[in-house]
Amino acid sequence: MKKIAFGLSTVALSLAAATAQAGEVEVLHWWTSGGEAAAINVLKQEMTDAGHTWKDFAVAGGGGESAMTVLKSRAIAGNPPASAQIKGPTIQEWGDLGFLTNLDDVAAKGEWDTVLPSVVSSVMKYDGHYVAAPVNVHRVNWMWANPEVFKKAGASIPTTWDQFITEAKKIKAAGFTPLAHGGQAWQDATLFEAIALAKGSDFYNSAFLSMSDETLRSQDMIDVFSTFKAMREFVDPGFSGRDWNIATSMVINGEAAMQIMGDWAKGEFTAAGKKAGIDYVCYPAPGTSGQFTFNIDSLAMFEVDSEDAQMAQQDLARLILEPTFQETFNLNKGSIPARLNMPRDKFDTCAHASMDAFLASASTGDLVPSYAHGMAVNSMVQGAINDVVTNFFNSESMTAEEAVDKLARAVKAANM
Amino acid sequence: MTTKSANSGSGMTQSRRPARLSLADWMPKLVMAPTVITTIVCIYGYMIWTAVLSFTNSRMLPTYKFVGTAQYERLFENDRWLVALSNLGVFGGLFILICLFLGVMLAIFLDQKIRAEGAIRTIYLYPMAISFIVTGTAWKWLLNPTNGIEKMMIEFGFEDFKFNWLSDPDMVVYCLVIAAVWQASGFVMALFLAGLRGVDGEMIKAAQLDGAGIFTTYRRIILPSLKPVFFSALVILSHIAIKSFDLVASLTNGGPGYSSDLPANFMYTHAFNRSQMGLGSASAMVMLGCVLAILIPYLYSELRGERHE
Amino acid sequence: MSNIAKRQTSTLDKVLRVALYVTLLAMAFVYLAPFIVMLLTSLKDVEEIRTGTLLSLPASLDFYAWGKAWSGACTGGTCEGIAPYFLNSFQIVIPAVLISTIVGALNGYVISHWKFRGSNFFFAALLLGCFIPFQVILLPMAKTLGWLGVANTTSGLVFVHVVYGVAFTTLFFRNFYQAVPAELVKAARLDGAGFFTIFYRIILPISTPIIVVTIIWQFTQIWNDFLFGVAFSGFDTQPVTVALNNLVNTSFGGKEYNVDMAAAIIAALPTLLVYVLAGKYFVRGLTAGAVKG
């Protein structure tokens, strides 16, 4: 049935294409959880309204690991999808290999250079040309809390990591899980990164951008690891392998008090019908209030042969930057628009805080790329750091000093 | 037998042979040709290609900048790889031993003229029909400390019951063993049951006439005659152990930390998700080395058996 | 073997016999338990799963989860359940099983009865192919499929499964045909029968047990494959295992374990049916020669 329907619509489209330049875009992505799926459906709808066919190629699991395998397999077979969800330094890697197509025309028409903040547009460009379209800016260093649980436990929202430990002990004593967490490498990394950021943006950049051996081996880094390990006793026993949104639902249900997670977690609260400021509250991760770790999702466009597909692809890029899409998508996903100067009345208080922090931090140098989400370093270094971080968090015997030594060595080996 | 081979010299058929010889000669080769080609290209070609890549610094996609054995050196300095290798040792060893033990035991038990043998046999065998993805999904749930077996036992009244292997880095590899044994032991049972059914009854009769008890008969006569079955089972099980990728991916995804990583998962992660094609290829070559170590004795015995015929 | 279990009437034997049945049934329970839990879970609603235990019975028979898993569950932007992927799997599995079985039968026939120079060596080399870690071949195979023009299509997946399945099917048939007396084939050749005539008239009629084993084995292997399915499929040719993985990794708010379990059972149904219905022939076929070292 599906096949026939699909066949018919292809025929119908190829007829339409002759007049309206409609085509099909295949979009490979791993936006599969509630808020993410709702967000991507917005784009799907807009493309369909524009007369194009949207081929939704979702490959779930493992933070896009399977999706990346599919992408490589397709690229090497000479049949890449028109568009794929890749981001950060990975865009440069694909650009190096010559797979990405040039979006400069659309960008010029849409004045991307003026509507996008430079920190965003520089990520979208390869060799000075636009090759990807940004859909959002995520702030990663958020803490989500259930005020009800805090009230019951007689605890207050922590603003430093030391305070976090004191308050979490109270919450645990009251019978709640203090920290909702999922034991997956990237979630461990998200927590670790937030703790490292509290040591200051200079420390953060020196460790995760310049990868200075001195910083990686410093006493500050040892402290970061010690604090990180202290979190281990605040998670529940079933945390292993748990998905991030299941952890979020623990905060929603009042089983857990807090979660350190990027603002995509808000999408889950919204999908569950919860209101910011009432049912849940958002605070910057302890000790990072003026800082902003950014994670920009983007769709990179691949070279495709057919002219129709190219048209559809350019249209897709154009639609992504349209204010209407940026608004609806980000309302669903919990992030803030990649475009500047958007009307902000529909966004909630958390998003407002995010937008303000984004602009403010850009001028103070506190706007830093998220290592845990592949914005700071390439996948090799990121993977090497993650290995040390996640192994340390789960190991009972490794000391913070040992971890620091392993970290420095792993980073060096990955940079070979 | 002798009469038949004498027939081969009979004149009547010989006169027809030359005309058919060429076709008859070519047909077998023609039939095998597609397999030969795909084997050369898709198995050996790819293997060589991987071997070549393991000496390059290929990252996201293959490149041909050669770096000698640097990738192998990096590999054996990598903590995660060493964990994966030792996990394979523990997992593979336990998995094979337990499967063999259970398989033999259940096969012998089932071979005692059991009522409803067919039904019981099907129950033992069915997990083999299920994919590792499903096995992983189901066992992840059973072994999860907050809603699985632990919770059930606590609600049955064992308040202090602890079963949190899935989140314990030292124990998680045994979770893999449990799930894999559950899946494959029934198949081993079927192999041995088939073997037992093929054992020569006369031999057993003779042993029993000599006064041998049932246990002695099994230990001395029957099990030794099942040596080829042991061997087949061993090869199939090692094959499953080395290739266990789906199970790890769906049950633990390597965690907690990377404590349940196996070489196949290490290779996959590095080659595909971390843009370390060279390192991934080097780990694949080490895996292939392990495979050869298992397979060569098997092939040797196969081909030697041939010569005796 | 019947001699061992010969009726003896001592009390010890009776006790042993009871112990034997108890052990067998206990083991049967262990093997069945995960499946029972999956089945029970799939029939409960989310609240019952949270409050109940693994083996508690559902309050009422609720097939909501089954319906949703089959045709309503969402992955990304599509909400079609796993039904369409189920069909995809059949489109891949049926041709792949048939082709690999036929090729394997012919190969086995050649290797055991029409030996030529190097055929044994080739067989050894092919066996090695059973053991290649499949992660290794993903990229070169993708390149090959692209070059053949079948990348991300059903035909491409069938091709991959045939190429890597033939090693096993050849092994099965070769071991089975080794037991066929060489004289039988020789005599037929002398009588003027050709390659295919002998195959049809003599070999094929006795091959039923091994064909059953091979088909069951291949069906299970290919149906359950995930790695090739995810790497080589297009967006509309993904097999059911990939869909299942997508489904269990996708969650909206809370995790719907009942839907996950229902989907897992549905995905496993065809192979389960094959094992339950044809299990007898499977063991029989193995007895007939597949396990010969």
Automatic annotation (TrEMBL), chain A:
Q: Which Gene3D superfamilies match?
A: Periplasmic binding protein-like II
User: Which InterPro entries does the record match to this protein?
Assistant: Bact_solute-bd_prot1 (IPR050490), SBP (IPR006059)
Output the Gene Ontology cellular-component terms.
periplasmic space
Record keywords: Signal included?
Answer: yes
User: Which keywords describe this protein according to UniProt?
Assistant: Signal, Transport
Top-rank lineage group of the source organism: Bacteria
* Signal sequence annotation: 1-22
Q: Which Pfam families match?
A: SBP_bac_1 (PF01547)
Q: Where in the cell is it found?
A: Periplasm
Q: Major location, coarse class?
A: periplasm
Q: What is the recorded function of this protein according to its Swiss-Prot or TrEMBL entry?
A: Part of a binding-protein-dependent transport system for a sugar.
Family, similarity comment: Belongs to the bacterial solute-binding protein 1 family.
State the name under which the record lists this protein: Probable sugar-binding periplasmic protein
User: What is the species of this protein?
Assistant: Marinomonas balearica
TrEMBL record, chain B:
What sections of the protein cross the membrane? 30-52, 88-110, 122-142, 171-196, 229-251, 277-300
Report the principal subcellular site.
Answer: membrane
Q: What keyword terms does UniProt attach to this protein?
A: Cell membrane, Membrane, Transmembrane, Transmembrane helix, Transport
The parts of the chain that form a coiled coil are: none
Q: Which residues form the signal peptide?
A: none
Q: Name one Pfam family in it.
A: BPD_transp_1
Matching CDD domains, A to Z?
TM_PBP2 (cd06261)
Q: Does the keyword Nucleotidyltransferase apply?
A: no
What family does the Swiss-Prot or TrEMBL record give for this protein? Belongs to the binding-protein-dependent transport system permease family.
Protein name as annotated: Carbohydrate ABC transporter membrane protein 1 (CUT1 family)
| Origin organism lineage | Bacteria, Pseudomonadati, Pseudomonadota, Gammaproteobacteria, Oceanospirillales
From TrEMBL, chain C:
| Segments forming domain ABC transmembrane type-1 | 86-278
Tell me where in or outside the cell this protein is found: Cell membrane
Q: Which UniProt keywords apply?
A: Membrane, Transmembrane, Transmembrane helix, Transport
Q: InterPro entries given for it?
A: MetI-like, MetI-like_sf
Give me any GO biological process, just one: transmembrane transport
Identify the GO cellular component terms for this protein.
Answer: plasma membrane
Name the domain of life.
Answer: Bacteria
Instruction: Classify the main location.
Output: membrane
Note the topology in the membrane.
Answer: Multi-pass membrane protein
Q: Where would you find the membrane-spanning parts of this chain?
A: 20-40, 90-109, 121-142, 154-177, 198-219, 261-283
Q: Which family does it belong to?
A: Belongs to the binding-protein-dependent transport system permease family.
PANTHER family, from UniProt? ABC TRANSPORTER PERMEASE PROTEIN, GLUCOSE IMPORT SYSTEM PERMEASE PROTEIN GLCU
Q: Could you tell me what this protein is called? A: Carbohydrate ABC transporter membrane protein 2 (CUT1 family)
Question: Which source organism?
Answer: Marinomonas balearica
